[in-house]
Amino acid sequence: SKWSQLTACPDGEKAWPKKYPFCGGVFQSPIDFHKDILQYDSNLLPLEFIGYNVPSTDQFTLTNNGHSVKMYLSPTMCIRNLPFEYTASQLHLHWGNRNKSEGSEHTVSGKHFAAELHVVHYNSEKYPDITAAMDKVDGLAVLAVLLEIGPFNPSYEKIFRHFRNVKYKDQMVQVPGFNIQELLPDRLDEYYRYEGSLTTPPCYPSVLWTVFRHPVKISQEQLLALETAMYCTESDDPEPLEMVDNFRNVQEFHERLVFISFR
Ligand code: 1SD
Ligand code: ZN
Questions:
Q1: Residues less than 5 Å from ion ligand 2, measured at CB
Q2: What is the ipTM of this complex?
């Protein structure tokens, strides 16, 4: 991606393995979902969401961390129906640019979606916090939602309306609580499941991925707002650098399989 060649943002992805050996290793993410690697698994049940409906009296911190926009979630939110119980940590987005709205990390039969939401959870049955879990094989579970153009999405707007307050790196704003399940597709029963990695350095192979089959729609205006909202640089930087194309390219899948909950 273009983002990966920029120098003020994190170093280009081709250079990642030098400093972060895991990035050149196995079980890397994202990947392309194509029919040769998909296998139906009847044991894949819909996930169960606990505490996802957060009252508006609670607040989430939204921040620009220089490579994405990230919203910290409540430790009372968790998911069940995975091998362990996983507690929510944060969500963030990956996107393209205003000329080429192909910003998803995962692709389906080679096709990019406009953007991708990641809701990051850690294995709270085995580890005390995300830092301890991050580099463990059974440490993390990330839910991914593919985003495409459609009607205005009022639920995503609950985050997007705050973008103007986090234009620059390290800025923060408080967002009133809402039901985070609104950001997920209606069909929660159909998804791709595989063992992969963080898509940013240090690329630890610690993520049990759930990528929902059905994309969620946001409007053209909302996508443009995402693509033009932020900078990788701090507010006093004389050379502001737009935060665009912050997705990693798809990785080799070697001998792995992706399990799917649908036929
Ligand atoms: O890019 C994020 C990174 O910012 C961090 O949140 C990490 C987990 O701590 O996850 C990656 S990703 O694999 O969810 N893209
Ligand atoms: Zn991500």
A1: 118
A2: 0.96
